[in-house]
């Protein structure tokens, strides 16, 4: 499964597309789009999970654990916004949490040793 870990580009592509799909679905709710987004959640977790396993050799278990948790939380907040929007419930707090977790995930992701490291 080398193609999953030879670079971080596949992971970056999946979360980038996921966030774009989420923003479109949040502006203009659409069932098909939401199903496509859920497929991308799975792709984000598979590509991130493969990098996580690869990272066992880096001796930064805690930081990678935090990165994994933050990535899952970003996905969770996207899902909360869309589901609550569909039920006409308030979404503000979940938008705020989405932005905070996304920022922290990007920060940790780019700081960690694989792939791009302009924050290191
Ligand atoms: C929407 C959610 C996510 C975003 C925005 C995100 C963002 C990022 C970014 C910016 C990087 C750095 C890429 C690079 O340095 O080239 C990265 C790497 C990584 N991500 Fe994610 N990620 C998300 C979800 C996940 C999930 C769910 C997991 C685990 C299952 C995960 C695990 C990893 C791992 C292990 C790395 C490698 C870190 C390194 O050493 O550079 N990510 N991610």
From TrEMBL:
Domain of life: Bacteria
Classification via InterPro entries: UPF0344
Organism of origin: Ureibacillus thermosphaericus
Entry keywords, A to Z: Cell membrane, Membrane, Transmembrane, Transmembrane helix
Residue stretches spanning the membrane: 6-27, 39-58, 64-83, 92-110
Annotated localization: Cell membrane
Family membership noted in the UniProt record: Belongs to the UPF0344 family.
Membrane topology: Multi-pass membrane protein
Protein name stated in the entry: UPF0344 protein HNR36_002653
GO-annotated cellular components: plasma membrane
Pfam families: DUF1516
């Amino acid at each position: 499964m080398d193609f999953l870990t030879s670079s971080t580009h596949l992971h970056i592509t999946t979360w980038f597309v996921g966030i774009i799909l989420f923003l479109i679905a949040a502006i203009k709710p659409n069932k098909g789009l939401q199903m496509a987004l859920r497929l991308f959640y799975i792709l984000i977790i598979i590509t991130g999970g493969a990098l996580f396993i690869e990272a066992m050799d880096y001796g930064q278990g805690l930081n990678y654990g935090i990165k994994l948790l933050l990535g899952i939380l970003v996905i969770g907040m996207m899902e909360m916004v869309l589901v609550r929007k569909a039920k006409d419930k308030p979404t503000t707090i979940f938008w705020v949490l989405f932005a905070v977790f996304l920022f922290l995930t990007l920060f940790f992701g780019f700081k960690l040793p694989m792939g791009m490291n302009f924050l290191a």
